[in-house]
């Protein structure tokens, strides 16, 4: 029973970090292990400008929000994406 309770408690904990990481892996086709908080989309994960636009669009869709272009340009790492979502999206 404890195990089931733990799972139930953990299941909704699909955290913002986990969701952002999943999107980065899917959009950029990189290994999950490479997607660290400090990973730069361009320098570390090999994204080009089109990749970053598609990544922002995927984040907007996942979190049902709009990220203005001037804000999107400032999001260059996984942690910055997580921080932006936490600050602008109601969980």
Keyphrases for this structure?
disordered N terminus; 5 helices; Non-ribosomal Peptide Synthetase Peptidyl Carrier Protein, Chain A; phosphoprotein; mainly alpha; 0% strand; 91 residues; lipid metabolism
Overview of this protein structure:
- The protein is mainly alpha-helical.
- The chain has one domain: Orthogonal Bundle (Non-ribosomal Peptide Synthetase Peptidyl Carrier Protein, Chain A).
- 57% of the residues lie in helices and 0% in strands.
- It is built from 5 helices and no strands.
- It has helices spanning 2-10, 16-28, 49-63, 69-72, 78-88.
- α2 runs antiparallel to α3 and α2 crosses α5 (78-88).
- The chain is globular and about 30 Å long.
- Mean pLDDT is 88; it is low at 1-13.
Helix tally equals 5
**How confident overall, as mean pLDDT?**
88
Return the structural class: mainly alpha
Oligomer kind: single chain
| Number of separate strands | 0
Radius of gyration: 14 Å
Largest sheet: none
- Share of helix, binned: 55-70%
CATH architecture assignment? Orthogonal Bundle
Spans of at least 5 consecutive residues with low confidence: 1-13
CATH secondary-structure class:
Mainly Alpha
What CATH calls the topology is Non-ribosomal Peptide Synthetase Peptidyl Carrier Protein, Chain A
CATH homology group: ACP-like
| N-to-C series of helices and strands | HHHHH
């Amino acid at each position: 029973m404890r195990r089931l309770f733990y799972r139930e408690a953990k299941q909704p904990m699909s955290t913002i970090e986990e969701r952002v990481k999943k999107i980065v892996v899917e959009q950029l086709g990189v290994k999950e292990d490479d997607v660290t908080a400090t990973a730069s989309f361009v320098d570390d994960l090999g994204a080009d400008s089109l990749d970053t636009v598609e990544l922002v669009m995927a984040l907007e869709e996942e979190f049902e929000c709009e990220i203005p272009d001037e804000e999107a340009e400032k999001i260059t790492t996984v942690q910055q994406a997580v921080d932006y979502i936490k600050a602008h999206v109601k969980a």
